[in-house]
Design goal:
461 residues, alpha/beta, five-stranded parallel sheet, three-stranded mixed sheet, 23 helices, 59% helix, globular, binds adenosine-5'-diphosphate, binds magnesium ion
Length: 461
């Protein structure tokens, strides 16, 4: 038996029994390391996940693996294996020489819960113009992006794309990069997230390697910075970005930026804002029904999956605000049909979407509930959490609460300010940026967030 398929099938079953949030939080970076005799060894990204699996999910994992292997698997062990799934060279070649990464690659191809494979430029080779469906909401953005491929650095410079989460900003930006590389392979392309830019900058300053940083970021023909909103409030990084920008712009090198907020909301500085006016700012809105349907059809075709048009209609009608979720729902339907070897029926799909509908789940959690969970978790009284004191024991839980309200419930910044003791929206924005940034380096914070998310979704599941 092919044990990658076994883990695939087990994941399929686990996904059905858990909330989407739990499933992605815990199972995203797992893989099947080995299957010896009757024992399966599961690779987990850190010790925390290992403990969590042993304590909480062991029975479910064992059951799913037992089902998936027709009873062969009788025991499960967990092993910390921190090799990053996304950057493994195996992912690029697809050579099945390494058990863990090969199975992780298989997961990533079949479903969306693992990081996508990347090419040498750190971009996803699947993000092309061919696979990008154009509708009213992204017509202008995609036309501008295409124009840039023909004449980089000469028309819209910079191109600033902004829009909500999961609406195709990263896809469109990388489509430009991929198309330019395909057309002019010698072009020097640099794609990075804003976090990466920020970290590289900070590290280079600390290590006295400012020149290296400049060499890297200024000797390019195309610079793409994804999610530039994270630069908000970072003064030195903004300054460096300003200098990088000027250097590239003066030499007619193309710059593309994406953000989930319009420029004014992230760049306090007039001179930075005025630079953006040299180029084109285009927003990407929510897709209408026709576009959602077209996207679903395209994804089915790409994956060679035939499905009744009525069913696609149901999916397009149910998931309306986020293309990533739309795709996720389709993948879930496909995985389940393949697993059970049945053609999807309308009933079945409706049922699946119900359990899938994380946004419905999210909507049913109120900000008040989140605040109560956070207060309890950090053991601080609600009045103090909402109060004016800036003591650290209160300020930290408060910032975490604001982060969760934004990240999970998608509450607007002004509304978060109101909920959390009548604060200004800039306080909420600052809290969000701070927690987003710190969580990658601060393991304790990361774990707190995971546990809190778990509590929030298990309460409202
Ligand atoms: P964002 O960066 O805005 O959060 P992404 O670019 O990551 O969103 O898009 C989320 C997912 O939806 C990706 O898998 C992407 O391929 C897909 N997607 C988004 N917009 C489109 C589109 N217009 N056509 C096809 N797929 C799309
Ligand atoms: Mg993105």
């Amino acid at each position: 038996m092919n044990y990658q398929e076994v883990w695939q099938a087990a994941l399929g079953e686990l996904e059905l029994t858990l909330s989407k949030a739990n499933f992605t939080t815990w199972f995203k970076q797992t893989g099947l390391l080995a299957l010896d005799d009757c024992a399966a060894t599961i690779a987990v990204p850190n010790a925390f996940t290992k403990t969590w699996f042993e304590k909480k999910y062991h029975a479910a994992i064992l059951k799913a693996l037992s089902h998936a292997s027709s009873g062969t698997v009788k025991n499960v062990l967990y092993q910390v294996d921190a090799r990053p799934v996304s950057t493994s060279p195996i992912m690029d070649t697809g050579r099945p020489t390494d058990r863990f990464t090969a199975s992780a690659a298989a997961v990533s191809q079949k479903t969306s819960f693992s990081p996508d494979p990347t090419n040498v430029f750190g971009m996803n080779p699947k993000y092309t113009f061919e696979s990008f469906i154009v509708g009213k909401q992204n017509e202008m953005a995609s036309a501008a992006a295409k124009a840039i491929v023909d004449r980089p650095g000469q028309i819209y410079n910079p191109l600033f794309l902004y829009g909500g989460v999961g609406l195709g900003k990263t896809h469109l930006m990388q489509a430009v990069g991929n198309a330019i590389i395909a057309r002019l392979p010698q072009t020097r392309v640099l794609y990075c997230t804003c976090e990466r830019f920020t970290n590289d900058f900070i590290q280079s300053v600390r290590g006295g390697r400012a020149k290296d940083f400049r060499d890297q970021y200024r000797n390019v023909d195309l610079l793409m910075i994804d999610d530039i909103q994270f630069i908000a409030g970072k003064k030195e990084t903004q300054e460096e970005f300003f200098n990088t920008f000027n250097h590239l712009h003066q030499t007619n090198k193309q710059i593309i930026l994406t953000s989930d907020r319009p420029p004014k909301a992230i760049l306090a500085e007039e001179r930075l804002l005025s630079r953006l006016e040299w180029g084109l700012t285009s927003d990407i809105g929510q897709p209408d029904f026709e576009t959602r349907l077209a996207i679903l059809e395209a994804k089915c075709k790409e994956k060679n999956f035939s499905i009744d048009p009525d069913i696609l209609n149901i999916v397009a009608n149910t998931i309306t605000s986020n293309i990533r979720e739309l795709e996720g729902a389709l993948i879930k339907i496909m995985a389940n049909c393949q697993l059970r070897n049945i053609a999807p029926s309308t009933e079945f799909v409706k049922q699946l979407l119900q359990s899938f509908s994380s946004s419905a789940g999210k909507r049913s959690t109120t900000p008040k509930q989140v605040l109560a969970i956070v207060a309890e978790y950090f053991d601080v009284p609600m009045v103090e959490l909402l109060g004016a004191s800036r003591e650290k024991r209160l300020a930290h839980p408060r910032q975490v609460a604001m982060y969760i309200l934004r990240q999970e419930l998608k509450v607007s910044y002004p509304a978060i300010g109101v909920e959390v003791g009548g604060r200004d929206h800039t306080t909420a924005m600052h809290a969000f940026d701070k927690v987003s940034h710190n969580k990658d380096e601060d393991l304790k914070l990361k774990q707190d967030l995971e546990v809190l998310k778990e509590k929030i979704y298990s309460q409202t599941a």
